Amino acid sequence: MGSHSHEVTDAILETLKRAGAGLKEAGVRFALAGGCAGYARGAAPSLHDVDFALVEEDVPLALKTLESLGFRTAKPPEDWLVKAFDEEGVLVDLIFSLADRPVTEAMIARAQPINTAALSLPVLEATDLVISWILPLSEHACDYGSLLPMVRAMREQVDWDRVASVAAPSPYASTFVTLLERLHIIAPTTPRPDSTWP
Q1: CA-CA distance, 41 to 137, in Å (whole number)?
Q2: Measured between alpha carbons, how far is residue 21 from residues 31, 73, 155 in Å?
Q3: How many CA atoms lie within 13 A of 34 on its CB side?
Q4: Are 92 and 71 in contact (CB under 8 A)?
Q5: What is the DSSP letter of 124?
Q6: What superkingdom does the record give (predicted)?
Q7: Rounded CA gap, 73 and 75, in Å?
């Protein structure tokens, strides 16, 4: 984010506060996700936009709520999210499918309230957050370097055995877990064969 990093971060956190407060007041079932959730959980700011995970049937209410706050909304070609932009052009992604899996009420129920930008907001459980980051890893998008500092900052909040279980079918996600073990960032994991996600 270069020399404007503090300005960018402040603008994103202001948008996060406005959008989050509005969604909360409207009763939308949502949780903070993405880089902002990592930031709320103690990782260094790596903020480009605001990501909220929400139950798909609440998308219309979420869009109506943000429009009432002055956001411009858009439905992109992707079938797993919708977008909203505030007056400054800061992007809010409303994500109803994470890693090709629908966001469930159970996932939102596991979210924990954390004081973020002077506002208590539900934040994805750390284990769910890490899974949402590593499951999409693929041959075409496999940036372990940007993930390492994020998960290192959150490592004590995460159920790594559950992460390893869910990651096992993916060679890219499971290799990342192995890398964390080899770097002694986490203890050796014991995958549980009955673990599912979300």
Answers
A1: 22
A2: 12, 17, 28
A3: 20
A4: yes
A5: -
A6: Bacteria
A7: 7
Q: What six digits make up the tokens of 183? A: 């770097």
| Domains parsed from the chain with CATH numbers | 1-124 (3.30.460.40), 126-197 (no CATH)
Q: Which residues pair with 74 in a beta bridge?
A: 83
Rounded to two decimals, the pTM is: 0.90
Count of positions (residues) in the chain:
198
- In three-state secondary structure terms, 19 is helix
How far is residue 95's CA from residue 194's CA, in Å, rounded to a whole number?
26
Residue 63 one-letter amino acid: L
Residue range 101-154, pLDDT digits in tens: 999 999 999 999 999 878 899 999 999 999 999 999 999 889 999 899 999 999
What CA–CA distance (Å, rounded) separates 58 from 51?
A: 15
What residue has token string 């940007």?
146
**The two three-digit tokens of residue 10, written as one number:** 């402040």
